[in-house]
Amino acid sequence: MNYSKCTESVSLFIHRLSAPALLSGLALMSAPAQALIIDNFEQGGFSLVADQVNDPISIETGLPTSDVLGGARWAQVVQNGGIGTVGITLNTGSPGDDGVYIDTVATPDANPSVSGYLQLTYGGGLALHADLTADGGSSFLVTVGAATQSTTLGIALYSQIGSSMFGQYISRTIAAPGTYAFAFSDFSAVPNALKDVVRLDLFIGNTTVMDEALYSLLDFRTDGEEIETTVPEPGVIPLVGLGAVGMALSRRRRPRAFRLC
User: Fold this and answer.
1) How many CB atoms lie within 10 A of CB 111?
2) What is the CATH number of the domain that holds 121?
3) pTM (global) more than 0.85
4) Distance in angstroms (rounded) separating the CA atoms of residues 51 and 84
5) Using the 8-state DSSP alphabet, how is residue 107 labeled?
6) Which of the listed residues 24, 84, 198, 218 has the most CB atoms within 10 Å of its CB?
7) pLDDT digits (tens, 9 = 90+) for 41-66
8) Prior bond of 191 cis (ω within 30°)
């Protein structure tokens, strides 16, 4: 029996199977997932109204971490100008009704200078300790569903660097609905600020907001694509093994470019 021919034919057979088998196995072992969700405003709910003497706060805990970063959301509405009220509402459970809405109403309506803002906090008490670059993200994305007047949209980032805490604030003026990007590079005053984020604040509104302004926030996330490792399906590991054997047989005389371990 000619063992050399037999060996050659078997190795050729395995080599022909190895490339698709290896690729199929690796594809099943890891798959891209959505970017990191900070808040999609689909969980929880609150209704707060601020006036000249009261700036109420809502603290919601136990929320799914897949919908709210850290599983807790702090919301505060502040009335800081004019005579009137500033109200915010987060309604969930109805299709198309998710999102945070902020509106200003002067009393009486003839007063044009009532103003205020909404502050949403994630990691209240400086408790997040999240690496926002781990999913490959390079910016924050904030989707605004309504903006009847020009106002300020801002993000405050608090980071743990060694034993010290650093805060940075980036804002921009918005005047229309849309998705607004805040590049991670904008927070470059503190190196590695995104590696250990202990708290995030999101603001909308400012002192220039006038009577009967309406805004809404629909989504707050990063733009990365997280690589999610899953449990291999039955047969995946044998496929990967077959691919490795095929590669080894076909490249016995070549230097190794990588090693599976």
Assistant:
1) 14
2) 2.60.120
3) no
4) 6
5) S
6) 84
7) 988 888 899 888 899 999 999 999 99
8) no
